[in-house]
Design goal:
45% helix, 2 domains, flat, 6-stranded mixed beta sheet, alpha+beta
Length: 182
């Protein structure tokens, strides 16, 4: 079950958006990034409503980060045209390793072992992904950055580009129809 609205944006466009968004967002909205809110619990870009409170699973009430209603914005990157089973396996393990390496740890032999095991696994899988990106064309799929794609989801570029070309009225009516059907 998803509790918010998710948007996907090409990484280059997201970088431009982040440069101007904070000064352009209306009062009461906050662009939450790991840089603008270092205490936030996830490496996900969000636009937060500062006049609300929304409790998510795993929220840390002792950490001082914004907890208002939000919209997630995910950076999309090009994916190599490899079998979906490869993508699912690699992205799931990269995401899992990243999450474990970046979660709060307590000093123990287990956390010490996890650091080396998941660190090695993370870098080995990133290297494999880099090789796949060099060998295979990246002209068919795009999706979320690897650390945020634990489900291995890929989107076809031709459908994404077609969607971008629709005018706003068509997009809104498509979403309205989708909402009415669900």
């Amino acid at each position: 079950m998803d509790d918010d609205i998710d948007l996907g944006m090409p990484l280059e466009d997201l970088k431009k958006f982040m440069e101007i968004a904070q000064s352009e967002l209306p009062e009461g909205l906050f662009l939450q990034t790991p840089q603008s809110d270092p205490s936030s619990k996830e490496p996900i870009i969000k636009i937060r409503d500062l006049n609300s409170m929304y409790i998510e699973m795993g929220d840390n009430f002792s950490a001082d980060y914004q907890k208002g209603l939000f919209v997630d914005i995910f950076p999309f990157i090009d994916y190599p045209s490899v079998p979906k089973t490869w993508v699912k396996k690699i992205t799931k393990e990269i995401s899992k390793s990243y999450s474990i390496l970046n979660s709060q740890h307590y000093y123990s032999m287990r956390s010490f072992a996890e650091f080396f095991y998941f660190g090695a696994k993370y870098w080995a899988l990133k290297a494999i992904w880099g090789v796949l990106c060099m060998i295979y064309k990246k002209d068919t799929y795009l999706s979320n950055i690897l650390i945020n794609n634990g489900y291995g989801i890929m989107h076809r570029k031709d459908l994404y580009i077609l969607y971008l070309r629709l005018d706003l009225r068509e997009k809104c009516s498509k979403h309205l129809i989708t909402l009415m059907l669900t």
